[in-house]
């Protein structure tokens, strides 16, 4: 059995990362060679066969998805991109920054969030075994290959994980609309675990009740919520900004004008 990765960026990042064993690369017949030059070079170095196939065959393989003329076939033994939760926490930076995703059942949202997490330098992402979108080809495509670099771990239940994080010195902060504390008013330079829920269901009650704090993004229009991937981008890059500012101050750098 095998899994698939499709799309230019997802396949390229899978080759660059080298975390999954690719059995072969399928390129659409007639595709311009220059567009896939780096992919063919990396495939040759990794001794991964590259085969030309009719584009209609790739359409069937990907069930009509936008494969951009390229599909990678992954060996089943190398298909999992999930990391070990303990390893993520053991190797997290200082101060660590991790993300917990609760009720994110749309694979497009999950992929977009993982892309943001990778760009913001998040140390790891935790998803529950149930009520979460699976890590599949749709997530990989939407993440534009970020899934190959960001570490994602699956846990049975987020609540025990939150207790563990607190014991390790993390502040666990839920992001939810309508709360009194604005995200810009919270110190995110500390060891931090950010919890995001879907815009429809939000964070589940038990998870919310176990958070140390709740923060919100103020809304100024008539729509009262943001897509969760957009909210994640706003919060995560605010956390990154605060951390850079705190590091500058600790190193004696002058405040920006």
Could you characterize what this model shows?
With 257 residues, the chain is of the alpha/beta class. It has 2 domains: 77 residues, Ribosomal protein L30/S12 (60s Ribosomal Protein L30, Chain: A, 2-Layer Sandwich), CATH 3.30.1330; 166 residues, SPOUT methyltransferase, trefoil knot domain (Alpha/beta knot), CATH 3.40.1280.10. It has 9 helices and 10 strands. The strands form 2 sheets. The protein has a 6-stranded parallel beta sheet with strand order 7-6-5-9-8-10, with helices on both faces. Strands 1-4-2-3 form a 4-stranded mixed beta sheet. Helix 1 runs parallel beside helix 2. It is elongated. The N and C termini lie far apart (58 Å). The C terminus is likely disordered.
